[in-house]
């Protein structure tokens, strides 16, 4: 059924197809249809970050920026759902067209630019959802906020989503907001993480609830830069790292239609870079900071590969666009078949 739906949707422009799909998934969730139409994966519960996940395969941020279809995605079998990236104020993002399919490479290029309706709208959507599983909320800065004041945007978003999130992801790795990736390095990263850690502890004291913080990083750093990020995560008490966001590389899409479009490349071509980053982080973090792996998972074996590289959880986005809910089941099954996986997930 999904193959037929995809054929029809792919006849539309990429962003029109995205918006229509989101509407359909959201409507199916509200009516309870998705759980009837989709075969759920076998149970594979795991505890990570002090949270109980129904299974280790989640929806990556970016597909549902405003929390419009939380219940719908949950009913498709995801073990957790991450929404956003959300910014303090609504913003339209970059001019269209800004989303491109590269089906020959099972890939997508986007330069969306954090288009979203703002954090207040997202919080209202979360309040209206019935989903009671693990919900991540991914936060960012507005495009016109100077990089040196970026921490103000992140702190404002953290204040507003803290009560409603199972965990909060800090996105410092989108290539589509000018200057954002500079926050991954050196004093800029430490200043941001220190500010977030301090605010998170204050919120924990006032609310009686400590919400884990995850940092989402890019796959385009050198090994040395990745190891410096790992050291900063440990030093500032971050709870998790998501590896990785999209890449600026065009390796694997050379000569393809849309292959030279500006923006972040996701899907199959980023798989090796993302897995390398996961493996590097795992060696440096030694289990002290859990890794959530994303990037290039287009079949179940790729999800298992991320776990074997050192991740505790995985997320899908582009692979889900091309494969649909079958990828969730396939990934859960592949991870379940790994020897000793439950013992290794912390």
TrEMBL record:
InterPro entries: Aldolase_TIM (IPR013785), DHO_dehydrogenase (IPR050074), Dihydroorotate_DH_1_2 (IPR012135), Dihydroorotate_DH_2 (IPR005719), Dihydroorotate_DH_cat (IPR005720), Dihydroorotate_DH_CS (IPR001295). It comes from Pseudomonas quercus. GO terms for molecular function: dihydroorotate dehydrogenase (quinone) activity. It is found in: Cell membrane; Membrane. It is a peripheral membrane protein. Its EC number is 1.3.5.2. This is Dihydroorotate dehydrogenase (quinone). Monomer. Its main location: membrane. Binds 1 FMN per subunit. PANTHER family: DIHYDROOROTATE DEHYDROGENASE (QUINONE), MITOCHONDRIAL, DIHYDROOROTATE DEHYDROGENASE (QUINONE), MITOCHONDRIAL-RELATED. Keywords: Cell membrane, Flavoprotein, FMN, Membrane, Oxidoreductase, Pyrimidine biosynthesis. Substrate binds at residues 65, 110-114, 171, 176, 245-246.
């Amino acid at each position: 059924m999904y193959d037929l739906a995809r054929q029809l949707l792919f006849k539309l422009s990429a962003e029109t197809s995205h918006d229509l799909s989101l509407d359909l998934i959201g409507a199916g969730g509200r009516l309870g249809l998705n759980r009837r139409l989709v075969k759920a994966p076998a149970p594979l519960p795991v505890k990570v970050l002090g949270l109980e996940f129904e299974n280790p395969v989640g929806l990556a941020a970016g597909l549902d920026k405003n929390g419009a279809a939380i219940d719908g995605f949950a009913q498709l079998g995801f073990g957790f759902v991450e929404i956003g990236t959300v910014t303090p104020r609504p913003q339209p993002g970059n001019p269209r067209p800004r989303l491109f399919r590269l089906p020959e490479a099972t890939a997508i290029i986007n330069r969306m630019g954090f288009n979203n309706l703002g954090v207040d709208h997202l919080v209202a959507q979360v309040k209206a959802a019935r989903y009671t599983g693990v919900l991540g909320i991914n936060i960012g800065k507005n495009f016109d906020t100077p990089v040196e004041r970026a921490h103000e945007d992140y702190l404002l978003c953290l204040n507003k989503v803290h009560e409603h999130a199972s965990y909060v992801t800090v996105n410092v790795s989108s290539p589509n907001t000018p200057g954002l990736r500079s926050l991954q390095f050196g004093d800029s990263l430490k200043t941001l993480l220190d500010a977030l850690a301090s605010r998170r502890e204050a919120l924990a004291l006032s609310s009686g609830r400590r919400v884990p913080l995850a940092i989402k990083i890019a796959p385009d750093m050198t090994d040395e830069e990745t190891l410096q990020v790992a050291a900063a995560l440990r030093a500032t008490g971050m709870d998790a790292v998501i590896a990785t966001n999209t890449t600026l590389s065009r390796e694997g899409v050379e000569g393809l239609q849309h292959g030279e479009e500006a923006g972040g490349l996701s899907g199959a071509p980023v798989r090796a870079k993302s897995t390398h980053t996961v493996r590097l982080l795992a060696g440096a973090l030694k289990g002290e900071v859990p890794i959530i792996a994303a990037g290039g998972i287009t079949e179940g074996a790729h999800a298992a590969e991320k776990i074997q590289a050192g991740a505790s959880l995985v997320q899908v986005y582009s692979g889900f666009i091309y494969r649909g809910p079958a990828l969730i089941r396939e990934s859960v099954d592949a991870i379940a078949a790994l020897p000793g996986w439950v013992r290794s997930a912390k």
